[in-house]
């Protein structure tokens, strides 16, 4: 697992944040891990564009199902179908020659009944895991991921 922070020197909080990082930052990244991160980031913009398109297409599909009263899907949460879309758009990166931004790879689907959600998650043929950096499609049954030891209570 790795991450990064970029401090924008033009922001008013830059000096304060920079001093905090100067005081507390420790470079504990193993060189071989850095090489893997570098390699995996080479096609980041391309992969991000694919993630954006796939999530948008799934959102469109599930949203159409949610409009039917006979559907097991009741709601889809994704910026393109939610009233809060403008809040996301206020912070989207601008389009460049290399990349057209989208709304990300994360979306949520709400089911009418727990049994329907369980059947869906059991039947869909993708990895179930809470990891955003993988090169494969992942699905996380949120309640199971968050309340694994308390599933009866969470249901």
Count up the helices.
7
Sheet having the most strands: 2 strands, antiparallel
Stretches where pLDDT falls below 50 for ≥5 residues? Answer: none
Helix content: 40-55%
State the end-to-end distance: 31 Å
Q: What string gives the helices and strands in order?
A: HHHEHEHEEHH
| Rg, alpha carbons | 20 Å
The chain-level structural class is mainly alpha
Shape: globular
Q: Give the strand order, joined by hyphens, for the main sheet.
A: 1-2
Protein model, in words:
45% of the residues lie in helices and 8% in strands. The chain has 7 helices and 4 strands; from the N terminus they run H-H-H-E-H-E-H-E-E-H-H. The protein has helices at residues 14-24, 31-41, 44-66, 85-89, 114-123, 142-146, 151-154; strands at residues 73-77, 108-111, 127-128, 138-139. The strands form 2 sheets. A two-stranded antiparallel ribbon has the order 1-2. Strands 3-4 form a two-stranded parallel sheet. The longest helix is centred in the middle third of the chain and has 23 residues, at 44-66. It starts with 13 loop residues before the first helix and ends with a helix.
Task: Give short descriptive properties of this protein.
155 residues, mainly alpha, two-stranded antiparallel sheet, two-stranded parallel sheet, 7 helices, 8% strand
């Amino acid at each position: 697992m790795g991450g990064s922070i970029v401090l924008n020197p033009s922001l008013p909080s830059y000096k304060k944040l920079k001093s905090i990082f100067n005081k507390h930052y420790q470079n504990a990244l193993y060189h071989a891990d850095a090489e893997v991160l570098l390699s995996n980031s080479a096609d980041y913009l391309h992969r991000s564009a694919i993630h954006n398109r796939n999530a948008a297409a799934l959102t469109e599909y599930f949203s159409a199902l949610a409009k039917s009263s006979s559907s097991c899907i009741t709601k889809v949460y994704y910026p393109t179908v939610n009233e809060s879309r403008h809040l996301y758009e206020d912070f989207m990166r601008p389009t460049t020659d290399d990349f057209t931004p989208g709304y990300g790879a994360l979306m949520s689907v709400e089911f009418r009944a727990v049994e329907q959600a369980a059947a869906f998650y059991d039947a869909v043929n993708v990895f179930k895991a809470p990891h955003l950096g993988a090169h494969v499609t992942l699905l996380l049954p949120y309640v199971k991921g968050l309340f694994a030891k308390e599933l009866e209570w969470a249901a």
